[in-house]
Amino acid sequence: MRVLAAMSGGVDSAVAAARAVDAGHDVVGVHLALSRNPGTLRTGARGCCTIEDSMDAQRAANIIGIPYYVWDFSERFKADVVDDFVAEYSAGRTPNPCMRCNERIKFAALLEKALALGFDAVATGHYATIVTADDGSRELHRAAAWAKDQSYVLGVLTADQLAHAMFPLGATPSKAEVRAEAAARGFALASKPDSHDICFIPDGDTRGWLADKVGAEPGAILDRSGAVLGTHEGAAAFTVGQRKGINVGHPTPDGRPRFVLEVRPSTNEVVVGPREALALRELAGARFSWAGRAPDDATTEFACEVQVRAHADPVPAVARVSHLDGLDDREQELVVTPTDPIIGVAPGQTAVLYVGTRVLGQFTIDRTVSAVPQPSLVE
Amino acid sequence: MTTGRHARERLSRPMPAEVIEAYMAALAVVGNPSSIHTQGQTAKRMLEEAREAVAAAVGAEPIEVTFTSGGTEAINLALKGLWWARTGTRILSTRAEHHATIDALEWLERHEGAVIEWIPVDSLGRIDLDALAAALGSDVALVTTLWANNEVGTVQPVKEIVALAAVHGVPVHADAVSALGQLPIDFAASGLAALSISAHKIGGPVGTGALVTARATVVEPLLHGGAQQRFRSGTQDAAGAHAFGVATARASGDLAGHAARLTQLRDHLIAGIRSAVPSAMLRGDPSDRLPGNVHFTFPGCEGDSLLYLVDAAGFSVSTGSACRAGVPEASHVLLAMGLSEPEARGALRFTLGDSTTVEELDALIAVLPVVVTRARSAGLA
Questions:
Q1: Exposed, middle or buried: residue B324 (CB in 10 Å: 0-12, 13-18, 19+)?
Q2: What tens digit of pLDDT does each residue of A302-337 get?
Q3: Which of the four CATH numbers 3.30.470.20, 3.40.50.300, 3.30.70.2190, 2.40.30.10 does domain A279-370 have?
Q4: B327 touches chain A (CB under 8 A)
Q5: pLDDT tens digits for range A200-249
Q6: Which of A48, A117, A119, A122 to mutate to test the interface with B (most CBs of B within 10 A)?
Q7: A65 to chain B: nearest residue by CA?
């Protein structure tokens, strides 16, 4: 196959590209330029996006012996990932930009361009596994290295995208093994640190970066009854479930910590309360997709596990697709009921559904139902 | 389609065997040209003979030739050196210059208080002489121009620029890196204060270039430490200079014949592309352009798609502008010529050289329609 290996300049994607070559594919390395202005995104970033990263990727491609190009996706990245991130936070939601990048850049803009130019697949250094089912359809599964598993951020991929995706690291038992392989292959980037932060926020200060973009005005911190407890420096920097950064100057009467329960961007208010008030008994979203084969009848309740963050544990649940009352009958939503109430879910987050190791699908959480007898905390 | 993907440099000018031989032989000569001992003297002689060869090729006196580490250093030395030795405060240039010029000028603006005035270029990339005349004055420190545009090939009216500047006593620097070996250059007759050239454009080694400065021109040095040359310190690279000298003598010996051959190839390629891909737009002056330069934009195509596909078919081309800091960008030259960014993104530059054959060009022309159709289907990212 003719394979385009997306090379960030990191260890994983370099080893993935090398393995694609070893597997006998005709591989070309491509580094995605995600910012045109080297002064902002491309300086000081960790893990991707800097000039140095592009040089690291080029040197790895050179050692592997494959052609290497830099393709400019900066405009698409800004519109589909960075601006989306800002807009979501401005609306009081908590987006996952890596997921958005997979959905709209790596496995959309890049994949479409690759297919148009004659490639058969895009390979990345993600830790996830693709399994071909008995009926020939492709399934997305967790990686062998559970600790590094990235199937969550790939949950947005559809059957068509999975048909052209390749994850050569999926079966590797650990990151240490990938690093050792990189060293053995002579990649100087073998010892490069992992990237953890959001690549377009160079210093890792998400709150400061957001304050710059969405503006930060002091506003009120309220309790659930609406009483003002204190002030904050800008509601957009808060996310539901957050504990740090709530400075109201005095402890709760019972001494227990406060958590962010709700962010109200329109009034610049942050509502806080006890941890149990975060418990939800239902999550739902109208924007959902199936990773490969859809359930035979998704309108009938089916058992699954739901995972709400990249590194959260999956919890048992039942799910079904339901038609939204009072709306056009094509309007549907995916509704998930965890067996036990689930804590710390923010609107805008993605819920990924699993059956065993298989990713079934995902949805963006836009509606929740509280498990505690309070007025609905999230509209 | 992938056959020959690794065939590189077909369309560029490789170092000729006689230059490689001269370079190797010179590397065997041990000695610092500044040393007084015999080996040093041998190196010194080699260096000065090279200076004479380069000077002769561009119509300058040997003392006017300062060897540098390449075109970029020559341009930086000329612009910063002339600025530091100036009387005026303004610098006149165009937005269609090479990045060595634009970046150096922007640095002077940020760090040295220079006031840069960007004179417009027309749709062919040629400087607007009326605008230049209007902007000139005795408070202008210097004017800098390309001899010929490295991307779109358009030859600049250097004589007219110098004449206009001379009215106000303003020194003019020309970046002749792309012109060397393709167009006749007579420094003495040009009236220029300074001229930058580079060895690798004529089959000499990368890492060697020269700044030619008139005897009367004062340039403040960039590098200090020994004053081995008029405006430049540092142990001189006798072997590099020697190879530069041999390449220069070789190129200037048959300049007219070489230019005529390239012109024929160029016009063949232009006609071939126009007929194979009727939507393609030739950029730069159709005839008054570098003999070895062909530059087209292909509407609806992304330059990096074109580059990948042409490269995969076995031809080395460029997207028009070199990647800037690793990031491919729409060419600033095309933007300066008034193209929109989407138009400017679908650019391909073809550089013809000694080893280019009509058969290769015909093979390239033959693959272009498929390449362009495919690139267009990949769209603009």
A1: middle
A2: 999 999 988 889 999 999 999 876 555 558 899 999
A3: 2.40.30.10
A4: yes
A5: 887 778 878 888 888 788 999 998 888 899 899 888 778 888 888 887 77
A6: A117
A7: B6
